[in-house]
Design a protein that fits this description.
about 260 residues, alpha/beta, Cobalt-precorrin-4 Transmethylase, domain 1, Methyltransferase, Cobalt-precorrin-4 Transmethylase, Domain 2, 2 domains, five-stranded parallel beta sheet, five-stranded mixed beta sheet
Length: about 260
């Protein structure tokens, strides 16, 4: 069968995969695990194989984005396991378009993602604006577009979800502390009072897992907080009274 099935794995470990996801994976001739857009820190390939009952092969960015995966889909039913929800990353939408152009059947099994899990902070989902990513800075590469996204969202009273960069090959995660330092450095240059040392921020770490941590407070205080990856950072916009009360549960000066 010529088919590609995208299967969301959820947020933490092999227990998060849905029953439908397991069934679809078992129907496939070949099962791949996409291992570059996100991470599933609570599990391993071996555990996924035991859960599904099939061999799982790693699929890197080059294999998927160059279309090499399509060669295998021409004569097989492929299942692509994706951390979180499979359609959060645009690379997977592109994969579906490639498949449709070749008249290869497609199927999607959704699951939980950071976009639903951030509601654990008490912030209302419909009040989030555009999401952006804070990337690793290098000596010759210091992008600042995420600062402008925060500014635009704040002007509209909206919250900003900041995804933090990761390098799967090096097993490196951009920490909330590093992200905050980057934002404060940009603020010193821009001087637009978008993210200052007194700006209240939210750190959301390992949401959807037993090890979840949520920290809320001024940027300068959050610099002292240590959390395990993967993590996200949120810059709140205008807060509803209920959002304020909920966030206060996680205020760092009350929960040290």
């Amino acid at each position: 069968m010529r088919k590609i099935t995208l299967i969301g794995l959820g947020l933490w470990d092999e227990k998060d995969i849905t029953q439908r996801g397991i069934e679809k994976a078992r129907e496939a001739d070949i099962v791949y695990l996409e291992n570059y857009t996100s991470d599933l820190p609570g599990t391993t390939v071996k555990k996924l194989e035991e859960k599904i009952g099939k061999k799982v092969q790693l699929a890197n960015r080059h294999f998927i984005e160059t279309g090499k995966i399509m060669v295998h889909a021409e004569s097989n039913h492929l299942a692509l396991l994706v951390p979180g929800d499979p359609l959060i990353a645009t690379t997977h939408t592109d994969l579906l378009l490639r498949a449709k152009k070749r008249d290869i059947k497609t199927d999607i099994v959704h699951n939980a993602s950071i976009y639903s899990a951030i509601a654990e902070t008490g912030l209302q989902i419909y009040k989030f604006g555009k999401t952006t990513t804070v990337t690793f800075w290098k000596p010759n590469y210091k992008p600042k577009s995420f600062y402008e996204t925060i500014k635009q969202n704040k002007e509209r009273g909206l919250h900003t979800l900041l995804l933090l960069d990761l390098d799967k090959r090096k097993k490196e995660y951009l920490s909330p502390k590093e992200a905050i330092k980057t934002l404060l450095e940009i603020e010193k240059e821009k001087k637009q009072d978008i993210v200052t040392e007194k700006t209240n921020l939210v750190i959301a770490s390992r949401l959807g897992s037993p090890k979840r941590k949520i920290k809320y407070g001024e940027a300068e205080k959050l610099l002292e907080e240590k959390v395990e990856p993967p993590s996200s950072l949120i810059v709140p916009g205008e807060l509803h009274e209920m959002e304020k009360k909920y966030l206060d549960i996680f205020r760092v000066d009350q929960n040290d």
